[in-house]
Amino acid sequence: MKYLKPMRLYNELLKSNELKRSRLLGLDVGDKYVGLSLSDANNKIASPLSVLVRTKQNTALIASDIQSLISKLSLSGLVIGYPFDRQRRSPDAVQVKCFIDDLTETGKFDDMKYTFWDECFTSKNVEFLLKPLALHPVQYKTITDKFAAVGILQGYLDFANRSRDQIQET
């Protein structure tokens, strides 16, 4: 996997979209689940996709699932939620970095590009909205992770589209 800065990933996506429709996959990496979201064909709107169960032993299975989604949904990049802190040593930041390293080691994503996007408060925002619904704890957690991935990807898409529009206006 190859890391690209956020706007570089989006610019490469735009170039590839001239040839074929490409989408982005958003990931919210947690200790038990990985929430997934998907951009629309125009890369304007993020929608919830699914949640993958995560354990220390199933990285290869998660990699296979993501690899299948890449080909089935014409994905050209990943937007991964990352807790930006000043030291970049928070347990959550280390967890995300280890997850990316583990995915890379599977060798299934050599041509895949990814970027990080700030996941600050995405889960908390979703939890705040879901609290009045009194859902079963497992259902609550999976919905939270899925919609946190939507928040990450939508934040990225909004930024990238706004930045592109500002460049075109000048």
What does this structure look like?
The chain is an alpha/beta fold. The chain has a single domain, classed as YqgF/RNase H-like domain (Nucleotidyltransferase, domain 5). 51% of the residues lie in helices and 22% in strands. It contains five helices and six strands. The protein has a six-stranded mixed β-sheet. The longest helix has 33 residues. It is globular. This is YqgF/RNase H-like domain-containing protein. It holds the Pfam family RuvX. Keywords: Cytoplasm, Hydrolase, Nuclease, Ribosome biogenesis. One of its GO terms (molecular function) is nuclease activity. One of its GO terms (biological process) is ribosome biogenesis.
Quick structural overview:
This protein has 170 residues and is α/β, with parallel strands linked by helices.
| Cα-to-Cα separation, first versus last residue | 34 Å
Structure class: alpha/beta
* Uncertain residue ranges: none
What is the CATH homologous superfamily assignment? YqgF/RNase H-like domain
In angstroms, what is the radius of gyration?
16 Å
Main sheet specs: 6 strands, mixed
Q: Give me the strand/helix succession.
A: EHEEEHEHEHH
Give the topology, please:
Elements: E1 2-3, H1 6-19, E2 23-29, E3 33-39, E4 46-53, H2 59-73, E5 75-82, H3 91-105, E6 113-118, H4 122-130, H5 137-169
Parallel strand pairs: 1-6, 2-5, 5-6
Antiparallel strand pairs: 2-3, 3-4
Helix pairs in contact: 4-5
Give keywords.
cytoplasm, alpha/beta, nuclease, 22% strand, 170 residues, 6 strands, 5 helices, hydrolase, single chain, six-stranded mixed beta sheet, 51% helix, Nucleotidyltransferase, domain 5
